[in-house]
Amino acid sequence: MRYSIEQYDANGFLKAPKWLWLGWFFLSKAWVVFVMAGASRDSGPKILGLIYPDHSMLYLGLVMGVPSIAMMWLVGLRHPDRRWAISLVKWGREVTLFTALAQFAQTGYHVYLLHGSFNWISALSLLLLLWFTLYVYNSRSVKDCFQPPVLYRT
Q: Transmembrane ranges (predicted)?
């Protein structure tokens, strides 16, 4: 047996690793900023203007955060009676990799628009996206958490 019994949920599915959850939250950072700005009514436009000066980048970030939020939701919905959720979660690794690479390209384009001037936020974002992409691509536990148990395979 490769994983301990605590790493499985009540239905026999391997739980997603903590680093994968943190990466999904990072990929949905535009949603986090959007909700925080909405929660602080008076200073909401200031927060959005500070983090996303160009509104089109916010909207693009919101669209690119949807697959991560959907994967977080679908991983929690896995159940033997929900075959549709099991079949959608099988594509989770590929969807996560595509989303991370798309956000990497978006951040790289943002750096290009700034004519390559150094920005700590962009540099840190590029570094975290690169690390997360390598983690999702190489991790055996990430591959296994998206595979259903033998009993539920279609």
A: 20-37, 57-75, 118-137
Give the number of other Cβ atoms within 10 Å of residue 48's Cβ: 17
3-state secondary structure (DSSP) of residue 78: coil
Q: Dump pLDDT digits (tens) for 56-83.
A: 888 999 999 999 999 999 999 998 888 8
**Who contacts 89 (Cβ-Cβ below 8 Å, separation ≥6)?**
71, 74, 75, 78, 146, 148
What is the residue-wise DSSP string for 8-61? B-TTSPBPPPHHHHHHHHHHTHHHHHHHHHHHSTTTHHHHHHHH-SSHHHHHHH
Domain-wise residue ranges, the chain: 5-147
| DSSP of 80-131 | TT-HHHHHHHTTHHHHHHHHHHHHHHHHHHHHHHTTT---HHHHHHHHHHHH
| pTM of structure | 0.89
> Distance between CA 50 and CA 60 in Å, rounded?
16
Q: In this prediction, what percent of the chain has a pLDDT beyond 90?
A: 52
Which one-letter amino acid corresponds to residue 42? D
